[in-house]
């Protein structure tokens, strides 16, 4: 059974006979996309972990792309009816859209086992363990029987719009140069299966010989990394023409 943001009002904290529960089937996976409190935030989805695998994309409360202004959502590219529904319950309806996308991207939507979304944003829940990470959505049942905990909370990020699947990489960069500057550094990944756009890894003071670590949620699975493009920029025109480079760049795929 796959629960697509099961309802919170009238169901949260009720007996298992009333709501969805992992005892309802041999394998129950749940996608939580609107689990903020009903009052005052009007969250429609249940917050509790109730399945064998519980996925909390983007933390499970506020989905990227759902904070658009109301007019742009109602006059949606998918039509006025779709846009109106998104305006009323955008976070809630993301669950079925993620599920639909998961059919097209069987290697996407990897969920990382974590105690919280804040922990997911650190290095503590990366990379996937030896048994791998479950895929949120249609292929979650590939993980059936592999879990040891009574329940498993899984976290991941998604895109703002279709295609929603993202692939997580950890990037560590050691800078080179003669003096520190203020600005930002971007990297793009090139691989056997495609290339990513530029992703910002650090902003602020760029100090030569310092090492900076960041996570990238890339819009494509690049496969085997063949090249990394490093670009930096300072925030204003500097007549001294400072130079900055990268001594080393390490890229780690979350999947393997």
From TrEMBL:
It is an enzyme of class 3 (hydrolase). It catalyses: 1,2-dioctanoyl-3-O-beta-D-galactosyl-sn-glycerol + H2O = octanoyl-3-(beta-D-galactosyl)-sn-glycerol + octanoate + H(+); a 1,2-diacyl-sn-glycero-3-phosphocholine + H2O = a monoacyl-sn-glycero-3-phosphocholine + a fatty acid + H(+); 1-(9Z-octadecenoyl)-glycerol + H2O = glycerol + (9Z)-octadecenoate + H(+); di-(9Z)-octadecenoylglycerol + H2O = (9Z-octadecenoyl)-glycerol + (9Z)-octadecenoate + H(+). Its main location: other. GO terms for biological process: lipid catabolic process. Keywords: Cell projection, Cytoplasmic vesicle, Disulfide bond, Hydrolase, Lipid degradation, Lipid metabolism, Secreted. One of its GO terms (cellular component) is zymogen granule membrane. It is a peripheral membrane protein. It is found in: Cell projection, Neuron projection; Secreted; Zymogen granule membrane. Residues 167-256 form the PLAT domain. Pfam families: Lipase, PLAT. Its EC number is 3.1.1.26. Pathway: Glycolipid metabolism; Glycerolipid metabolism; triacylglycerol degradation. Belongs to the AB hydrolase superfamily. Lipase family. PANTHER family: LIPASE, PANCREATIC LIPASE-RELATED PROTEIN 2. This is Pancreatic lipase-related protein 2. It comes from Anseranas semipalmata (Magpie goose). The lineage of its organism: Eukaryota, Metazoa, Chordata, Craniata, Vertebrata.
